[in-house]
Amino acid sequence: MPASTKFVVTGGAGFIGSTLVRRLLRLGPVAVIDNLLTGRERNLEEVRGQIEFHNTDIRDAKAVAPLIAGADTVFHLAAIPSVPRSIDDPEPSHEVNIDGTFNVFRAAAQGGVRRIVYAASSSAYGDTPTLPKTESMTPAPKSPYAAQKLMGEYYASVFYSCFGIETVSLRFFNVYGPRQDPSSPYSGVLSLFMKHLLNRTTPTIFGDGEQTRDFTYVEDVAGLCYKASQAPGVAGKMYNAGNGGRYSLNFIWDLLQKIEGVRIAPNYGPPRPGDVRDSMADTASAKAELGHAPRFSIEEGLKRTLEWYRQTI
Ligand code: UD2
Fold this sequence. Notes:
Elements: E1 7-10, H1 15-24, E2 30-33, E3 52-54, H2 61-68, E4 73-76, H3 83-88, H4 90-110, E5 115-121, H5 144-163, E6 166-172, E7 175-176, H6 189-199, E8 204-206, E9 212-213, E10 216-217, H7 218-230, E11 237-241, E12 247-248, H8 249-260, E13 267-269, H9 284-290, H10 298-312
Helix pairs in contact: 1-7, 2-4, 4-5, 6-8
Bound molecules: uridine-diphosphate-N-acetylgalactosamine.
The site of uridine-diphosphate-N-acetylgalactosamine (UD2) has 22 residues, from α6 and β8.
């Protein structure tokens, strides 16, 4: 790869994007596009001076195009996440996750970018009963967010077949780790659990807590994003970016209490609309074709994450 190879990370101030940025900086210049809606500039603190940072909204096609043109790889992670947020307030997530994604892909195709790696979502599988979820299953989105993220995958594949730009979609499975923002009711459940654990306050679990997720540590996801940008013969395809396990919320909350040596009984609330019951990735294709090699067990990932929150909260 030439020394001047440039990476663009949309959503680079988010917790996943900022982890990816740190990894990419070892390999070439990095530009971040982020409107700081859910991302935070402090997530890039010690690397801020080494990157090009653009406080730009991907809904603004004209502003985005020149920032992307001429890059080697675009990692498209910018999104308004959260299943419940997309139900409570569907317009912004539609505009960012579908129209914004189109703008990024269009800018990349017209700007001569070699490859796009797109952050898709495991929510596309919905409640199909079979586990683990394999890429060949028919999608069954249950929320606007899931439908929007699936649309991005379809666009990724069509941008390859119609416009010739290489695209790879990675379905992220409940990513967690340092820098995940616990400050919103729409925050990822593990960031909320961490905050409650350290503050000794009571978390709310929606439903019976026996729903399961394939919680995936952020460093493993960032590593896979880079591998997907380099692997040969994968253009136009979609892969699961999970860890390959699944854990219930009750199990995780118990484990966190054991690690911390406290007992705090959770509140149980009604199940959340649009929620998927069980989620677990079949990682065989990502391992075989992209070289996916997740390194972090749930225990190790939780301990590292907890230490980060302890220093920060
Ligand atoms: C979905 C996707 C995930 C990612 C994410 C982005 C699935 C299976 N996963 O995550 O891949 O795209 O969206 O937002 O669709 N919960 C509580 N208490 C709380 C908060 C959450 O019990 O305070 C529950 C929630 O009802 C759900 C689980 O925790 O059953 C996980 O919720 P989440 O919002 O962290 O992530 P999820 O699964 O919607």
